[in-house]
Specification:
The structure is a single chain. The chain is of the alpha+beta class. It contains five helices and twelve strands. Strands 6, 7, 8, 9, 10 and 12 form a six-stranded mixed β-sheet that branches. It has a four-stranded antiparallel β-sheet with strand order 4-3-5-11. The N and C termini lie far apart (about 55 Å).
């Protein structure tokens, strides 16, 4: 079967050539899954209200709402949340971190068992230190993104002895978003200054 260049917003697979121009999913199953995901989107209003949204490809390349290349340092390629969410470009959303505010993301690699939901002890300790702030499951299903506020002007990648990594970013990067809340984390951004200091000490 011939395929289009578009990708399903739910599974990331190629859209069939017979798909209508406005279609965002490749099948009824994916359409239902995408609807449920949108309905349960826990993304904090503090992120939604900023015009720093992009689309992303299956390989995590940032895209504009028109499907062109976007940049984490060029505001002209960013959009409002509602426009990015309505776009059919790529497979999902991304939020751009900028030095215009103190929003940061702590990225925990390979810390969550996607089948059992069990969290690695080292990651559980970081989550505990972060306190009541928004945490979401990464697109891979086995990582977590902790969102909050801190003064982070230069990204850091901290390699752990077991080969996993913790990354901390505050500007010049975009983070792939899923809207999938981890556990009972609230849809707010807390002060992460203490946990950032502890991780980078």
């Amino acid at each position: 079967m011939m395929k289009t260049e578009r990708q399903c917003a739910s599974c990331g697979g190629d859209m069939p050539i017979t798909a209508r121009a406005h279609a965002r999913t490749c099948s009824t199953r994916c359409r239902v899954a995408a609807h449920r995901a949108a309905k349960n989107d826990a993304t904090p209003d503090e992120l939604r209200s900023r015009d720093r949204w992009v689309r992303r490809s299956a390989t995590k390349v940032p895209l504009t709402t028109d499907g062109m290349s976007a940049s984490s340092t060029d505001p002209r390629t960013w959009s409002a949340h509602k426009d990015a969410a309505a776009s059919t470009a790529g497979v999902g959303l991304g939020f751009v971190l900028s030095d215009v505010d103190d929003i940061v993301c702590i990225d925990l690699d390979h810390c969550l068992n996607p089948l059992t939901g069990r969290l690695a002890p080292w990651a559980a300790a970081i989550i505990r230190d972060a306190g009541a702030t928004y945490v979401e499951v990464s697109p891979s299903g086995d990582g977590l993104h902790i969102w909050g506020r801190a003064d982070v002007r230069q990204g850091r990648r901290i390699r752990r002895p077991d080969g996993t990594a913790v990354e901390i970013y505050g500007t010049g990067r975009y983070i792939a978003m899923t809207g999938r809340r981890h556990g009972s984390s609230p849809s707010i951004l807390a002060d992460l200054s203490a946990v950032v200091s502890k991780l980078t000490a």
